[in-house]
Structure formats: C-alpha cells, structure tokens
Design brief:
There is one protein chain. With 163 residues, this protein is of the alpha+beta class. It is built from five helices and eight strands, in the order H-E-E-E-E-E-E-H-E-E-H-H-H. The longest helix is centred in the last third of the chain and has 28 residues.
C-alpha cells in the first residue's frame, strides 16, 4: 500500500484555532460535528474524569470518531500547553473531501483498533484465568464480530478482583 498522504499538507487551507492551557477542544457528551487536526501543542484526553491519553503528534486527529459514528464526543480533550489546531467545522464534509483524507483517517482509526486488539489479546494471555478478566475474551469477540452498538458507560466488573 502506498504511504498515506500527510494530513497537515491536506489541511493547510483549514482555519486555525489557538487554545490556551486548560481550554477545551471538545467536551465528552457534546456534539460539535467538527474534526480537528493538531498542528502543534499537547492535548490531554479524559473520559469520565480519568486521564486516558495525550496527543502531541502534528497531524493527529480529534473528533473524527464522533463524526464517523454520528454521535457525541466520547472524551474531553483540553490543551495542556498553548496549542494550535486546524478546524474542519463540517467534519463529515471534510472526511468526504478527498480520497487522500478518507484514506488517512481510515488508516489512523484502523491502526488504533489494531493496537487495542493486540493490547487486549496480550492482557488475555498474561492474565488467563484471573478473576474479573474473563471479560477480555468477550470484548475481543465483540470488537472483531460486531457492528457498532450503542455503548453505555459503566462497569459490571468485580469491584475488588483478586489480582
């Protein structure tokens, strides 16, 4: 497969958004319809108040999953340092704007899914038989054999597993 086009080059004509430390880019549970491309800076990602990731790579996407699934943002993204993003206010239109944009976004989402599946499979291997982690097998099965069903936050896991 040929290399994926550079998203910064593909988005050079988009308007920019400068955010200061602590400013939100998107908020969990809200719907903007926008896709953001990090030009420079550092973003913190939280879900349910729990830190889950940092975004620092120029060209990284924010908001594409919500646009792809037609839903609300699943996490809050805030600036950890003064940052600059490029904004496609019509995220769906942006994702349809060119085959190179579509391929780039699809490739990035597929790489994240591949990493998630590998991580879960490794957890399953390392902790096979551990109480409370039997659900990893079910999660893997659903990831590989399911079209997007609604997700409700929460957990039915054992609150104090023995591992």
């Amino acid at each position: 497969m040929p290399p994926v086009a550079d998203l910064l080059a593909l988005t050079s004509s988009l308007p920019v958004l400068d955010v200061d430390v602590g400013d939100p880019v998107v908020r969990e549970g809200e719907r903007t319809g926008a896709v953001f491309v990090l030009e420079r800076g550092l973003l913190h990602v939280t879900r349910g108040g729990v830190a889950i990731a940092e975004i620092s790579a120029p060209g990284a996407l924010v908001g594409e999953i919500a646009v792809l699934v037609g839903g609300d943002h699943s996490a809050t993204v805030t600036a950890a340092v003064p940052s600059r993003l490029r904004v496609a206010a019509d995220g769906a239109g942006f994702l349809r704007s060119s085959p190179d944009v579509t391929l780039h976004v699809a490739t990035e989402v597929a790489q994240r899914l591949q990493l998630l599946i590998a991580y879960l499979a490794d957890l399953q291997r390392q902790y096979a038989g551990a109480p409370g982690l039997a659900m990893v097998h079910d999660v893997l099965a659903k990831l590989t054999d399911r079209k997007g069903a609604a997700f409700e936050a929460g957990s039915d896991r054992e609150p104090d597993p023995l591992y």
